Amino acid sequence: MSTNNRILITLLVLFVCLYIQEIHAQTETNTTFMGGTMIKETYYSRTTKANRNCYVYLPENYNPSKKYSIVYVLHGIGGTEDEWIAHGSPKEIMDQLYKNKLVKPMILVFPNGRAMNPDSVPRDVYGAEAQAAFANFEFDLLNELMPFIEKRYSVYGDRAHRAICGLSMGGGQALNFGLAHPDLFGYVGAFSPAPNTDVTKFKVENNKTSPLIYVLCGESDNLLFVSQNINNYLTSKGIPHTSKTMPGNHEWSVWKEGLRSFVQMIFR
């Protein structure tokens, strides 16, 4: 083989190697996980006769031509729609689960669970007016927020693809609303549920239409008795459910783990 041919072959091999490296680099860039998007939305509520806000988490590569399951995530007694976003790291939790392919495609909605006008945090969060506003959110949720979300985003409209969960006061709301309407919610999660939980509102039976029910509470939580009472009631009625405890108090480490665990259980 002549010297010129050897040089030509060497150059060709070098070119092919460089080309393969470039293609590999482009592939890695194109498959970089960017994460989901958190959007702040405003909707008009006939329940409160005012505009109300919520946050919506859309998974990466949200495609309006596809249908997504939906999760309504509720805050605690002193919070608003901002509470989970500011303290609960829901985007980071969901992004990591998506990246590791541990969850099904879903959209999360973070509303203000206090249906009053104005709906900012009142001076007395334990007062009768504030307590009534949390109960009143059931009507805002069912009649205003859910129709708004289902019109604006490409989500399924059946119980098999709809979940509700929350922390503390929002955990009680999730149980009260979700188990009062098992025809609307196929999955209910409560993280450190508060004493607003009312088992007399539960309309679930030990049959195939019962929602998946998940309750988590910190072992040192002063409200642990609420979760224990819920567990005892559901057990006495023969209603399938999961009730767990973990190290912790009435705190975000428990609520973050509650959300992380719950979203991995649902829409399977």
Automatic annotation (TrEMBL):
Keywords: Signal. This is Esterase family protein. Gene3D superfamilies: alpha/beta hydrolase. GO terms for molecular function: acyltransferase activity, transferring groups other than amino-acyl groups. The keyword Signal applies. SUPFAM superfamilies: alpha/beta-Hydrolases. Residues 1-25 form the signal peptide.
